[in-house]
Amino acid sequence: MGFPMRSRILGASVALVIIAVCAWTVAAQGQAQNRPGQATVPTFSKDVAPILYKNCVTCHRPGEIGPMPLLTYEDAKPYRSEIRDHVATGQMPPWHANAAPGTFVNERRLTAAEKDTIVRWADGGAPQGNAADMPAKPKFAEGWQLGQPDVVLEMEKAYSVPASGEIPYEYFYIPTNFKEPKWIKSIEVRPGVREAVHHVLVFYRSEPDSTQPAVIRRNAAQGREPIPAAFGSSPPRRPMTPNERQRLISTYAPGTNPQVMPEGTALRLEAGGAIELQMHYTAFGTASQDRTKVGIIFAKEPAREVRPMHFFNTTLELPAGASNVQVDADISFVAPATVWGIFPHTHLRGKKWQYNLELPDGSKKTILDVPNYDFHWQTYYMFKQPLEIPAGAKLVSSAWYDNSASNPANPNPKVTVKWGDQTWEEMQYTGVMFSPALKPALPTIAPIRPNKR
Is 267 helix (H, G, I), strand (E, B) or coil? Predict the structure, then answer.
């Protein structure tokens, strides 16, 4: 039986209204997504991947220190909330110096626009976008951040790291077999077992082939060269021969980057020397076999010599429960120098650093301020504009420590803490990379002309 004519007309009208409403809704939704002045949601392929490739994947890729890779959309999407939160709060990329952007050549920081892009991508559902927009993946040498080294020096035998217990500092020696002096552009330390290697100091031991005048003098009142408690270690530290000298040439610690000498400079190593590795191992619950290695890239041409050195205060003492203890150390410049970079180092109680330069005229200026020092992300701060320091100047380092219960990283707030090698002890240590100042050019003297009469 058919509907009456009026009912059919009403039904048709309702249907038209429903179709119209649906069409309007779809159109309105489309207009809402593309409303003039409203920013579209960034996509991973076009907007986010370039930022990650530029700033993050050096660490966030397989085999590196980052806890998860971020090379693909499938890698990043499950962590979109963590990525957003860490970027928005400034925890990632890890950068702790208080300085204007561009002060340091090795800054790890995102621009405000880059942060905004990542936050809007995560909040907007983390879309992938068009796969054709993906940039080419960065190419890395297998196992090396700097690229394939010219020479790789590896521990001759593996060291057995126990699953538990305190491990004294260990020393290992690798002959270089250099037949002639070498100019080094960059050095990279690669732990065999990252979880077990807390830090590495790389020294070069050799007989000097030239006399180098002193440039920097340490303050003797702040303690002698620290001797790690390595008694009973195997193999033991070799004694120095009468003509031998030892120089710190590279450092590895959580968060540090490979050492790259500034443009136009290189590190000079005498012929016939050996690499000494000071290894600080930490048990992590699993027995392992470590063979740390050092990769070296040579300079392509002769360069201005850069010299690493360090200074410290081994007399530090942090009273139990004290929340803001300041410990200073200083060095004096007995000759002019160019300072390229500074490396602050404390352990778990260290909370901030500041470096002040005192000039011969009595003026002072802050050259490095690290208000939120993070033991887990240690940085060699390399100045974009190196510091030209006159003879008679003094560099003063100040470190502050929190040995109270309010410090969540404090191993034991009930004990007084002194200098020591282990992370539950403390250090006040600074690495400095410098060059002797270039000799000024001789003034141009105008030729003497006879007087005209």
Answer: strand
